Amino acid sequence: MEVISVIPRRLDVINKYKEQGGYVAAVLPIHYPRALLRAFNVLPVEVWGPPRVDTSHGATHLQPYICSIVHNTLSFLQMGGLDITDVIIIPHACDSLQGLGSVLLDFVPPDKPIVPIYLPRGRRESDIVFLTREFYAIYQRLEAITGRAPSDADLMKSIRREEGADEVLIKLHQSHSCLPLTDIAFYRLIRSREYLPAETFIELAQAVLAKDIKKPRDGIPILLSGIVPEPMSLLEAISEMGAMVVADDLACCGRRLYPPGRSGDPLRRMAERIIYAPPDPTRGNPIRERREHLLRLIENSGAKGVVFYDVKFCEPELFDLPTLRCELQKAKVPSVTVEVDINDPLSHQTLTRIEAFLEILNERR
Amino acid sequence: MSVADTLRYHWNVNLLGRAALRWRRWQTELLAKTGSGWRSEILTPPLRISAWTKELVGRHYLQGNFAHLHDKVAWVTSGAPIEFLRALDFYVLYPENHGAICGAARVVVEIASEAENAGYSRDICSYARTDLGTLISGKTPVGKLPKPDLLLACTNICQTVLHWYRVLAHHFEVPLILIDTPFIYTQVSDHALTFVKQQLEEAIPMAEKVAGKSLDQRKLKQITRLSQMATYLWLELLERCKHRPTPISVFDQFTQMAPIVEMRGDAVTVDLYSAMLKEVNDRIAQGIGVVPNEKKRLLWDNLPIWYRMRYLAEFLGRHGIVITASTYTNAWGELADLINPEQPLVSASRTLIHTLLNRGAGDKLATMRRMIDEYNLDGVILHSDRSCKPYSIGQIDQRDRLIREYGVPALLLEADHNDPRSFSEEQVANRLDAFIEMLGV
């Protein structure tokens, strides 16, 4: 579809933003307050690896049993891939990202500020209060970096803009199977939220939504769960096998469909949005909530099976898998697990595994 | 619990069980006295008091076997605050310690395979795989594990425990209390400390509800006081290793640390460590060292390799090398000053958040450097532990800095604390040989 071919390239977006006097933050996975950054005129550009970099740089600081996202991030940084950014934001998603933050701060400091964010693992009032205060601490760091001090009204304006973008993002997910987009085109659009300013993303997304064809695409409907669909050619391979992703529980996509906040206090509202996001093991949601969420997604989307597509060594994902698969089995939903290293090309073994699974689903249709 | 249950509990735990354990201790002590039970030409026999430690640990697990007749049961992570649970009369079980027992007993492959066959990846923590294997199969060297009424996970050692305890909560359908301790990258923030204290305050009514009783503040203070006493004694015990020759090696420390982890807050733990200190003082007075001719003293970083402790001790001991201190055993004593029995919750929030694994990699390097100076150490072995990412990330740079900036030989040893399938004896031997050469022995 035409719109997809005009998604601005990451580097062009960064350069344009900087030319207009803005700052750019490299943001590591997974959850962070976009609105807070934008209120300081800082554009968040997410770094999920990226895949296919020379990992020898990271290997001089990290053991081989650390996941490829963390290895690649460090390698990419050391190769100068983040030179264009002004600050590095490291949300605390897992032990490995915590370790990366610590290594960067203590042993291989880049020539730009590093701002870690601790994300609480509960959904209690104390978690919201803590996260609100944590965001205030981030506010102070950004104030020192940019020399700006946005008012509450500025923060609210920024929140509303991001809430608007997330509302459109939710609509895209809901209309996924009725959109005139292949899976890879759909996820390219969804993932452009990782670096596009909210206003640009809204424009693009609305253009796509206007072309909602109301008629579901054809193919074996599946749900994709995991961290990140890399390499993206996975999605093409799935299409070629006669299947289509109709819903996802991916950390970079479906787990970040943030609901609007409720509070009139901007920092608290940002905290609420993250705390009440869809279930995510890295934020400590009980497995029961994950099961219910998956079953709801399956019911609403008509998915016939689940592909757990996980990055090797990712403990947050791996711990839940046996229980989730067992629960899905009870609900008569077949599932398959695939483990990948984001640096490797899509292996024949992975494709065969998915293909065999799709054949089973096809027979059950 | 009925009167019959109580009687059955006391009969099994306090009469029969205690008598059997005491008998075994007496036998071990007798063997130790005659020296006939020890078969190493390289290492000095373990402390005589080890028999008492074993009796206490045995008794703890025996209590666990019958706990359902007498107490509410809480499963907790090793860094969790247990004083309020003990004050509410919970029987407290540490699955990580159970995992370590399985590791030392070399039954991990058999038990963890049960978890792996159920779909748990070999890339997750081997303690977790071991305990999940026990959960699935019932296999354990300690009889059986009591079903929990409550779970308590504190993230100050890793996020892994939270993932693991979420699985347990789902399996047992019991409440999970979370004490979340924001990681200290550089310095602790006030809002992080407040957050931890608030969670402790919120945890108490949850635990009270499960216990069916109210928390007695006086009892909490008393237990906190005992915890602090035991922690100070443990630290004092470790600091005795500043003497040359080293009176107890890090492998003895690993064996003797079970009570400071799982029986902290018990009066008997204070008694045990007081007596242990006396025995260590006697060793020092008599000039007894772990190896007969101590040439080099090392620091150990990270968890033990539970299934190869004797092998490593003898391998190094053969060359007159003793591992004198470790960041791991030190972590159970270094925060003693932060404990304040008069303010149990405030002090708990401070100690919880400042644990070694909740501090940055640079801070751990500083701890290592301090220990090298204070204990007069000649080198460092950093156990790169597949199963403990938070402890292991940063070790490559720590090793490089130790060598480059501090002139201290340092070795990164790849293994896993509990899973022998990640231990290559030949590779380890080669690396140790090269390291020993570097030490100039």
What features would you describe in this structure?
The complex is a heterodimer of chains A (365) and B (441). Chain A is α/β, with parallel strands linked by helices and 365 residues long. Chain A contains 15 helices and eight strands. In chain A, α7 (125-146) packs across α12 (266-275), α8 runs parallel beside α10 (198-209) and α13 crosses α14 (315-330). The longest helix of chain A has 23 residues, at 152-174. Chain A starts with a helix and ends with a helix. A four-stranded parallel beta sheet of chain B has the order 2-1-3-4, with helices on both faces. Chain B has a four-stranded parallel beta sheet with strand order 6-5-7-8, sandwiched between helices. Chain B is of the alpha/beta class and 441 residues long. The radius of gyration of chain B is 21 Å and the shape is globular. In chain B, α7 links the parallel β3 (150-154) and β4 (176-179). Chain B has one domain (3-438). Chains A and B meet through α6, α7 and α14 of A and α7, α8, α16, α17 and α18 of B.
Give me some keywords for this one.
heterodimer, A: 365 residues, alpha/beta, Rossmann fold, 8 strands, B: alpha/beta, four-stranded parallel β-sheet, 19 helices, 55% helix, 9% strand, globular
What can be said about this structure in brief?
Chain A is of the alpha/beta class and 365 residues long.
Secondary-structure map with pairings?
The complex is a heterodimer of chains A (365) and B (441).
Chain A (H helix, E strand, L loop, with lengths): L1 H4 L4 H10 L3 E5 L6 H6 L2 E5 L9 H4 L8 H11 L8 E5 L3 H12 L7 E4 L7 H22 L5 H23 L8 H9 L6 H12 L10 E7 L6 H8 L2 E8 L15 H10 L11 H15 L3 E7 L3 H16 L4 E6 L7 H17 L1
Parallel strand pairs in A: 1-2, 1-3, 3-4, 5-6, 5-7, 7-8
Helix pairs in contact in A: 7-12, 8-10, 8-12, 13-14
Chain B lengths: L2 H32 L15 H17 L6 E4 L6 H5 L3 E3 L1 H10 L3 H10 L8 H12 L12 E5 L5 H13 L3 E4 L10 H22 L5 H23 L10 H7 L1 H5 L4 H20 L9 E6 L7 H9 L3 E6 H5 L12 H10 L7 H14 L4 E7 L3 H4 L2 H12 L3 E6 L9 H14 L3
Parallel strand pairs in B: 1-2, 1-3, 3-4, 5-6, 5-7, 7-8
Helix pairs in contact in B: 1-2, 4-6, 5-6, 8-15, 9-12, 16-18
